Amino acid sequence: MTHAQTAPTDLCEALPPGRVSKIVQIHPTLNCNLCCKHCYSSSTPGAKQGLELDPILRFLEQAVPLGYNVVSLSGGEPFLYPHLRALAETAKQLGYYTSVTTNAMLLPAVSKRAILPLFDLVAVSIDGREAEHNDMRNNPNAFTKCSKASRR
Ligand code: SF4
């Protein structure tokens, strides 16, 4: 799903003072390496189909003259989206501030692909202390993997 929204956000602290933030929120895939109890998008490891890249890029081009200046990516796990690099590169070329929300478990592998510098903000979602997080995430190793990856 791709849609635009206008809202104040803490994500934009790095934007110039006084700059109005108009956000394009994109969920490019419902594919995820986790299957959390609370997932509002019903993302799952079985959801392989993601959005086509070209319509997203056209949308981003058309949104610039309308004043949109932030692209926020979530999912699903955005780092499983096969066109993430092209999407982030184009967003930066168009002048967008870029953010991505991740469960962090894939960050060690992602770091080797040098894709992180394409994002101004990498947000990691955590659901509580280790036991609570693992329970919500349906994975006994989720907290440990997330913590290790986030410290890199
Ligand atoms: S990590 Fe996020 S997108 Fe993936 S299943 Fe959990 S809540 Fe859903």
What can you tell me about this protein's structure?
The protein has five helices and five strands, in the order ββαβαβαβαα. By secondary structure, the protein is an alpha/beta fold. It has one domain (21-151): TIM Barrel (Alpha-Beta Barrel). A five-stranded mixed β-sheet has the order 1-2-3-4-5, covered by helices on one side. α3 (107-112) links the parallel β4 (97-102) and β5 (121-124). The relative contact order is 0.17. Bound molecules: iron/sulfur cluster. Residues 32, 34-36, 39, 41, 43, 75-77, 103 line the site of iron/sulfur cluster.
Topology readout:
Blueprint (H helix, E strand, L loop, with lengths): L1 E5 L15 E5 L26 H11 L6 E4 L10 H10 L3 E6 L4 H6 L8 E4 L5 H8 L4 H10 L1
Parallel strand pairs: 2-3, 3-4, 4-5
Antiparallel strand pairs: 1-2
This protein binds iron/sulfur cluster.
The site of iron/sulfur cluster has 11 residues, from loops.
CATH C-level name: Alpha Beta
Present as ligands are: iron/sulfur cluster
Q: What is the straight-line distance between the termini?
A: 31 Å
Question: What is the 3D form?
Answer: globular
Order of helices and strands: EEHEHEHEHH
Estimate what percentage of residues fall within beta strands. Answer: 15-25%
Helical/strand content category = alpha/beta
Q: What ranges have pLDDT less than 50 throughout 5 or more consecutive residues? A: 1-9
CATH homology superfamily name? Aldolase class I
**Tally of strands:** 5
Whole-number radius of gyration?
Answer: 15 Å
Spatial order of the strands forming the largest sheet: 1-2-3-4-5
User: How helical, in percent, are the residues?
Assistant: 25-40%
User: What's the pLDDT, averaged over the residues?
Assistant: 88
Query: Which fold does the CATH topology refer to?
Result: TIM Barrel
Provide the domain count. 1
Number of alpha- plus pi-helical segments = 5
- CATH architecture group name: Alpha-Beta Barrel
Largest β-sheet summary: 5 strands, mixed
